[in-house]
Amino acid sequence: MKTLKSLAFVLVLPVLLVLWWAVATLGGASFFVPTPVDLVSTFVQTWVGERMFTDVLPSIQRLVFGVLGAIVLGVMLGLIVGMNRTARAITEPVFEFFRALPPPVLIPVLMLLVGINDGMKIAVIISGAIWPVLLNTIEGVRAIDPVQNETSRSYGISGFSRIRYQVLPSATPTIMAGVRQCLSIGLILMVISEMFASSSGLGFAIVQFQRSFAVPEMWSGIVVLGLIGVIMSFIFQWIERRVLRWYNGLKEVENAV
Amino acid sequence: MSSSSVVRAKVGKAKRNPSSSRVPYGLWGVVGIVVFLGIWELLPITGIVKAAYLPPASEVLGTLFMDFTLTAFWVAVGETLLAWFLGLAMAVLLALVVGLIIGMSSFLRRATNSTIEFLRPIPSVALIPLAVLLFGTKIESSLMLIVYACFWQVLIQVLYGVADVDNVAMQTARSYGFSRVQQIRDVIFPTMLPYLMTGIRLGAAVALILAITAELIIGSPGLGKEIQLAQSGGAIAGMYALIVATGLLGVAINACMRVVEKRALSWHASVRGENVA
Amino acid sequence: MLSSQNGTTGGRTLPEGEALLSVRGLKKVYRTDGGDIEAVRDLTFDLGHGELVCLVGPSGSGKTTLLKCIAGLLGATSGEVLLDGQKVTGPPKKMAVVFQEYGRSLFPWLRVADNVELPLKNAGVPKAERKKLVDEALEAVGLSHVPKSYPWQLSGGMQQRVAIARAVAYQPEVLLMDEPFAAVDAQTRADLEDLIRNVWKKLGVTVLFVTHDIDESIYLGQRVIILSSSPTVVQEDIIIDLPAERDQLETRSLPRFTELRHHVYAEIQKAKQGHRPEEAKTKFLTNPK
Fold first, then answer.
1. Considering CB atoms only, which of B29, B240, B251 is closest to A89?
2. Once rounded to an integer, what is the mean pLDDT over residues B253-270?
3. Contact between C37 and B3 using a beta-carbon 8 Å cutoff
4. Residues near B260 by beta carbon (within 8 Å), at least 6 away in sequence
5. DSSP H helical segments within chain C, as ranges?
6. Does some domain include residue A103?
7. What is the pLDDT of residues A5-62, one digit of tens each?
8. What digits encode the pLDDT tens for the residues C25-71?
9. C63 — contact with chain B (CB < 8 Å)?
């Protein structure tokens, strides 16, 4: 009975919205808004089939490589800089500038420097998505409890061991917050780099539809993007819940006090 | 650390690492900037990177300073800031209202949760084609993207804030016959304020990103559009100069937001202090 | 214990080569914006093998500074610390530290058994032996039933036991404890005090126990070193001639306990008022007045 009730809460608003949409377009689709049935059939027509392989999967692949690259590089660099006070001081203004720089602005730059190819698109994603991970890693490492550090020192835990057993786990909550931002920036950059500078891919396809006024197809593309965003978000939350199980437990205990 | 901290507290900041702290922290930052600019200057000059693709720092900065004297530059900055401000303001207002309504009702919270979690991760840039269809290259295109993206940021924070309200305080207010408005003003709003400020700060950054993006991709008025024009017109140094200007704008906005947040929260702390007393 | 008190300043020292831990002329000066702060001026004392010595002193007497210098976590300005004749320049392998802030010293992402195991894992101890040491340590502190729990799921007293187990499993020669029971309630503190004495007796480890609690220092220690206020020197180094079998109720109600307590309390009051050992030389030896 309880799961039925939860299910009801999950579905009630979406169902109402879809019904309202269906009713609003009963008289026929407007130029801007297709009927729900139209949209579903267009969706299947457009995306289930060859386009999945020529446009969608390569886009997703570039996104995954870009985001993983940003995370790995960001964490590694963040560890090195974060553990050294002088390095932090030196890099802080420059990093803050790049963090404040809206990532899409680097697309023309990278087009010049790298040319228009897959490498460029992945470079664009990394160049924008790395900053939240990098800066959060630096902050996470910097803010490590000194008592923890002294404990490691007193037991002779140093070097790679210390990073693996103490520094990285301790900084993980902050790093994960950065990874979440990294994912959304990565998705934005993937779409934009394809809209702006590409002849294939999801973003490109959607822009093509819009330019040729194929409105239901355009909407279906928006839906695909939405689905990708949602799936990524769920995957991230699932991973975060597992990686940060200790942290969530700790916070629960602290808040209960 | 009781003993040594008492001793230290009497005299001032004790430096634990004499070696690295003889030089003040800020000075190292300047070194960093200089090194970065130095590398940027050398890469094209030594030919490691083609100067046509990456003009040296001196050339770019020179162009930037020239831009500062041009009205057209400041007009573009103003256009970007206008879109940023309007979009952010609308999003904050909307998110505040919607957030309060949803947050104050546990039924609504549960009913809207799935929809929020579904709509939230949808990238605002997915709406670009729609914006183009509806508004073309007018500022409304920028606003549509900005409002959509910022709304979710602020809404989530407002919901956190309302959820954080002390139940006992709410019950007390109700038992004293506070009207809805009074409840909101005196109980909910103070608790929610820090969260709202966080949301606004995050939203401010997102708003800038989307403003520039819309201008870059769609061509609505602003710095982003100028960048795109410079790029397609081959004015490479000019393009870089505008990009640097965008970064500086971002830094300025972040700094302003931090100040605003601090002010609002210190007011908040002093107000709360008085209320408690 | 054939040690002699070192003149007017300084604690008891042992003949050459007999001491396990030697502190000689330890001095620590902090450099600050407002000038130099001399936290510790001159500390000299020895710990023999298997001794349980308590360090007690007024607030600001550099107790923690001293402990960190001995532990190799802080460099001394001058003077030296010798462990087994070797100068201590960094955290030595045969020393383990139990910090006051157990919540921050234990790693919250590791379960209890993993926390205890970590220093051993890091030292390259083979798996089977690690398990044995961990199990024994947990049993010694009475926590065999919670190896899979996370530290933050346990009470304060239990968390400190985990920290003690971690130190014990490490099999150190010297156990340094920095006001370990200050953040724990009185009843738990009594249990933990007895635990320390049991662990000490069973393992024969040498313990240097820093505390601000006078009663605790007398109850636990074979010797109590009283520190002056900052800049710190040894105010006095007295031998606790209470019976070796100590009990919270019995021992604390002995008349001798009260005398010792009275004496230490008076000395600390003098230290707080700034009296230095040169001025108030009260050598309180083994026999009552």
1. B29
2. 85
3. no
4. B197, B200, B201
5. 63-70, 102-105, 112-122, 127-140, 156-169, 186-203, 214-220, 248-252, 255-272
6. yes
7. 888 888 888 888 888 888 887 776 677 777 888 788 888 888 777 777 788 888 899 9
8. 888 888 887 788 888 888 889 999 999 999 998 877 788 888 999 99
9. yes
**Nearest-CA residue of chain C relative to A250?**
C152
A246: contact with C, CB 8 A cutoff: yes
Pairing of strands C78-83, C86-87: antiparallel
Segments of C8-51 assigned E as strands: 12-13, 19-32, 35-48
Task: Work out the angle at residue B256's Cα, subtended by the Cα atoms of residues B253 and B259, and round it to the nearest 5 degrees.
Answer: 150
d(CA C95, CA C79): 19
* Residue A148 to chain C, least CA–CA distance (Å): 5
Residue A203 lies in a domain: yes
Q: How many residues can be counted in chain A?
A: 257
Range of the domain at A164: 50-212
First and final CA of chain A: distance in angstroms?
A: 33
- CA-wise closest residue to C208 among C32, C43, C9: C43
Q: Does residue A10 lie within any of the structural domains?
A: no
Assess contact for C242 and C49: CB atoms under 8 A.
no
> How many whole angstroms separate alpha carbon A186 and alpha carbon C283?
74
Q: If you search the block for the tokens 């309302």, which residue do you land on?
A: B162
- For the record, the structure tokens of A173 come out as 């909550």
Tokens for A86, please give them: 């002088």
CA nearest to A206, candidates A217, A197, A192, A190 = A217
Residues A96-108 have pLDDT tens digits of: 999 999 999 988 8
Measured distance CA(C140)–CA(C136) in Å, rounded: 6
* B190 pLDDT tier (thresholds 50, 70, 90): confident
pLDDT tens digits, one per residue of B134-162: 898 889 999 999 999 999 999 999 998 88
Q: How many CB atoms lie within 10 A of CB C145?
A: 9
Write the single-letter amino acid at C236: E
For domain B59-265, give the fold. MetI-like fold (1.10.3720)
Q: Does C99 touch chain A (CB under 8 A)?
A: yes
Any A CB within 8 A of B96 CB: no
Give the whole-angstrom CA distance, residue C136 versus residue A67: 46
The answer to whether the CB atoms of A155 and C105 lie below 8 A apart is: no
A180: CATH: 1.10.3720.10
Is C240's pLDDT higher than 60? Answer: yes
Question: Does residue A36 belong to the interface with chain C, where contact is any CB pair within 8 Å?
Answer: no
Cα nearest neighbour of C109 on chain A: A246
Please state the domain count of chain A: 1
Q: Does residue C75 belong to the interface with chain A, where contact is any CB pair within 8 Å?
A: no
- Write down the domain spans for chain B: 59-265
Instruction: Give residue ranges of B with CB < 8 Å to any C CB.
Output: 1-4, 6-8, 11-15, 18
Test mutation, C94, C106, C122, chain A, max A CBs within 10 A:
C122
The minimum CA-CA distance between C175 and chain A, rounded to whole Å, is: 11
Pairwise CA distance, residues C106 & A102, whole Å: 41
When pLDDT is cut at 50, 70 and 90, the band that residue A256 belongs to is confident
Q: Over range C12-22, report the average pLDDT.
A: 82
- Residue A82 and residue A170 in contact, taking contact as beta carbons nearer than 8 Å: no
* Peptide bond connecting C231 to the previous residue in cis, omega within 30 degrees of 0: yes
Residues in chain C with CB shorter than 8 Å from the CB of A147 are 99, 101, 104-105
With a cut of 80, say whether residue C280 has pLDDT above it: no
Q: Residue C21: helix, strand or coil by DSSP?
A: strand
Query: Which subunits have 3 or more CB–CB pairs within 8 Å of chain B?
Result: A, C
Please list the residues that pair with C95 across neighbouring strands: C174
User: If you count them, how many residues does chain B have?
Assistant: 277
B216 touches chain A (CB under 8 A): yes
Q: What is the pLDDT of residue B13?
A: 39
Query: Do B123 and A229 make contact, defined as CB atoms within 8 angstroms?
Result: yes
The per-residue pLDDT for range A143-155, each reduced to its tens digit, is 999 999 999 999 9
